[in-house]
Amino acid sequence: MILLGIDGGGSNLRVAAVDDALRVLVQTARGAANPSGIGREAAAALIQEAIGEVVAQVGSPDAVGIGVAGAS
How many structural domains compose the chain? Predict the structure, then answer.
């Protein structure tokens, strides 16, 4: 099982894939992903890019959790 975690904040974006024992398989980071600060389209593009990088290395996840500051 592969779990994907996405943490989009005002200072940086982190995306990580872990296995069912919560071992980190791959992770990546980008700049700020707060849509209130950089705009919705820019935030979405940044998040998609980071997810794509991780998924390219581990395949499609079985579950995804996401938290993004400023997204309401």
Answer: 1
Q: What is the pLDDT of residues 5-29, one digit of tens each?
A: 999 988 999 999 999 999 999 999 9
Domain region containing 25: 2-68
Q: Three-state DSSP class for 16?
A: strand
Mean pLDDT of 44-60: 97
- Amino acid residing at 25: L
Cβ contact 58:15 at 8 Å: no
Alpha helices in 4-69, H assignment, sequence order = 35-38, 40-58
pTM: 0.90
Contact 32, 10 (CB under 8 A): yes
Indicate which CATH number applies to the domain containing 55: 3.30.420.40
